[in-house]
Here is the input.
Amino acid sequence: MQLIHSVSELRARLANEKAVAFVPTMGNLHEGHIELVRIAREQGTCTKGTQSANQQTGGGDVCVVVSIFVNPLQFGPNEDFDKYPRTLEADCDKLQGLADVVFAPSVADMYPEQQTIYVEPPPIANELCGEFRPGHFRGMATVVLKLFNLVQPQVAIFGKKDYQQLAIIRQMVTQFNLPIAIVGAETSRAADGLALSSRNQYLSPEERTEAAFLSRTLCGMGDALKRGGADILALERGAGAALAKRGWQVEYISVRRQSDLGVPPQGERKLVIVAAARLGKTRLIDNIEVCL
Here is the structure.
């Protein structure tokens, strides 16, 4: 495994690679990230438009690149950019034997001059998490496009835990005609159902126990939808009230269409329940897909 910091060295290293699978991260890696890297290894020489993005095609030929970069553009002025954990040495230890290249640029490497040109994301970027994190998805989409340009992968892996991020990246790749297959990996969870996240480490022991109630709430909503006849608005309000009663500060709980996170029309069968809520000082997000 090779650790690379500069853009020029990265381009030289990847110049002759025929198949690249890419996992962008902000570091502080946990088992959920490592699973994304395993999936990248399995993708082999899969390319968009010629083979299914989920097909395994001889993973030995693929060069797996993992980026580790805490992107200032996607943090708001009152968010945790400065205190976001930087654990590069430990991250590299976890990636040994899984990744071929770790790209860990500085802010100056990624933004050699002030960024004045941005990716303008679709309107969904202003809803759900976007309502509470203005500019977040603009910064996220901009850095992901820059990373795609640097790495030039045939396939990129993103976790479904950040469902809104995944939806926006898929739209960006389609609308910019990028030759990249986007694979959405299932959310990795702890034994009690809590979605794995770098921010879980901020939870106190008592909060960590309580945190699993979010996924249980979403699963309960999913069961109600599958039984049929549920009033979606009442279901959303009831779930929010249940969380608030236990001390959560709910930002949103919403039933949406899987394809684009739009409000589902009557009869829509592929749904996703998305949620964000604060437990103490820690903001948690989660979702579950529901097929009726």
Observations:
- The chain has two domains: 2-185, 198-291.
